[in-house]
From TrEMBL:
It holds the Pfam family Glyco_hydro_7. Residues 1-21 form the signal peptide. Keywords: Carbohydrate metabolism, Cellulose degradation, Glycosidase, Hydrolase, Polysaccharide degradation, Signal. CDD domains: GH7_CBH_EG (cd07999). Belongs to the glycosyl hydrolase 7 (cellulase C) family. Its EC number is 3.2.1.-. Transmembrane segments: none annotated. GO terms for biological process: cellulose catabolic process. This is Glucanase. It comes from Ascobolus immersus RN42. The keyword Phosphoprotein does not apply. One of its GO terms (molecular function) is cellulose 1,4-beta-cellobiosidase activity. It catalyses: Hydrolysis of (1->4)-beta-D-glucosidic linkages in cellulose and cellotetraose, releasing cellobiose from the non-reducing ends of the chains.
């Protein structure tokens, strides 16, 4: 997820929305159904999958007690005197998906509402994962395959992100690798991404409370000493104004906890970490076709659309090397091929390839960290190992989502190539404004399919 640094820090959590590794006994965890389809040239078959809420949103309390282990944006040091003690003393609860978090699943459709007021306070944003059953995530292997879904972003203004992406999480949420983790995938544990986020309250079965720094901007979030890293394939980061799809490579081969320089945090360490934070993004607006995606444009965000992403290998087999990530849209019965690059000095590519990444990075004066960490080859190896599907809605307390839909970085002139990423004005995505003005913003994903090339749409 490009330019998010402390990834998903922007999610505002109410007092009850925190994480742990033990399992509470007050609320039953019932996973909403979200069936998908797997497709071949012979047709499509329905698979009965489910969703689970990320553990970072859940109420954490002392075992056998209603006392919070994490309150506001601070840990209770009496209960959590150490990372290990916190894992032993604290429990995570089941959740009310719709009433507390604004998450509604119906048929093959999933709606994520931005702000939900409930009896305990207010929830902002959410993130869920697709499950094969109540204890394991559904693992996707995407080489020589395509992934397709329908999406409605018409109710997502500047500053919001309705995201759908793949990450190399453990199938069981880390339960087997880390004995302190008693909750596992059933309670949404084990998150990682290429930003190596420090805002995760639990990593590797331990509380991330060492050096915990409460956020000055977000009253319910903070960052700890450790981050959690893995390869990430951003299929869809979007609102009604802009969209990008972006692979992020890492030198790791599975989810790993990081600290210090290896996390690649902001400043001089950004391009020294184990993961590529910028990614090799394809954003049609940034690539010069400003009339392709948006309200009333060729891909019209006032209406639902179908989004197809193909992972093409060099030998046409799943055993091959990833050489191209191709995007196709379908809307109102019409297949729409991806836009072509319209940037001086860059050939008119219409998909992500090594050649595209090299040319775009050079034209925009961007660091080629994606290529340094293995680029498309490494991304393909990671996808072949198996990825978990994440779906989320969030706002951005660090950069106001300007890396997606406005002019970014802020210290560069918008007239420079690659700086304008969408039509949103700088500052339009300020989280405080977005939360106040667009609480009912919603993204709806539906009709998820995975299958052989050219079989899902």
């Amino acid at each position: 997820m490009q330019f998010k640094f402390a990834s998903l820090l922007a999610f505002t959590l109410g007092a009850i929305q925190v994480a742990t590794q033990q399992v509470g006994q007050y609320d039953t965890e019932t996973h909403p159904s979200l069936p998908i389809q797997t497709c071949t040239k012979s047709g499509c078959t329905t698979v009965q999958t489910k969703i689970v809420l990320d553990s970072n949103w859940r109420w954490t309390h002392k075992v056998g007690d209603y006392k919070n282990c994490y309150d506001g944006n601070k840990w209770d040091t009496a209960t959590c005197s150490s990372p290990e003690a916190c894992a032993k003393n604290c429990a995570v609860e089941g959740v009310n998906y719709s009433g507390t978090y604004g998450i509604t699943a119906s048929g093959n459709s999933l709606s994520l509402k931005f702000v939900t007021k409930h009896q305990y306070g207010t929830n902002v944003g959410s993130r869920v994962y697709l499950m094969a059953n109540d204890d394991k995530y559904y693992m996707f292997k995407l080489l020589n395959k395509e992934f397709t879904f329908d999406v409605d972003v018409s109710k997502l203004p500047c500053g919001l992100n309705g995201a759908l992406y793949f990450i190399q999480m453990d199938e069981d949420g880390g339960k087997a690798r880390f004995p302190n983790n008693k909750a596992g995938a059933k309670y949404g544990t084990g998150y990682c991404d290429a930003q190596c986020p420090h805002d995760m309250k639990w990593i590797n079965g331990e509380a991330n409370l060492l050096d915990w720094k409460p956020s000055d901007l977000d009253a319910n979030s903070g960052v700890g000493r450790y981050g959690t890293c893995c390869d990430e394939m951003d299929i869809w980061e979007a609102n009604s104004m802009a969209t990008a799809y972006t692979p992020h490579s890492c030198s790791t081969t599975k989810q790993e906890r990081c600290s210090g320089t290896q996390c690649g945090d902001n400043g001089p360490d950004r391009y020294l970490g184990v993961c590529d934070k910028d990614g090799c993004d394809f954003n049609s607006y940034r690539m010069g076709d400003t009339g392709f995606y948006g309200k009333g444009k060729k891909v019209n965000t006032n209406q639902k659309m179908t989004v197809v992403t193909q992972f093409i290998t060099d030998n046409g087999q799943a055993s091959g090397t990833l050489k191209e990530i191709r995007r196709i849209y379908k809307q109102n019965g019409q297949v729409i091929q991806n836009s072509r690059v319209q940037v001086a000095g860059v050939p008119d590519y219409d998909s992500i390839t090594t050649e595209y990444c090299d040319a775009a990075k050079a034209a925009f004066n961007d660091n080629p960290h994606f290529q340094t960490l293995g680029g498309m080859r490494k991304m393909g190896q990671s996808l072949n190992a198996g990825h978990v599907l994440a779906l989320s809605i969030w706002d951005d307390y660090y950069a106001s989502m300007q890396w997606l839909d406005s002019a970014y970085p802020l210290d560069r002139d918008p007239s420079e190539p690659g700086i304008k990423r969408g039509e949103c004005e700088r500052g339009a995505g300020d989280p405080k404004k977005v939360e106040a003005n667009s609480p009912d913003a919603t993204v709806t994903f539906s009709n998820i399919k995975v299958g052989d090339l050219n079989t899902t749409y």
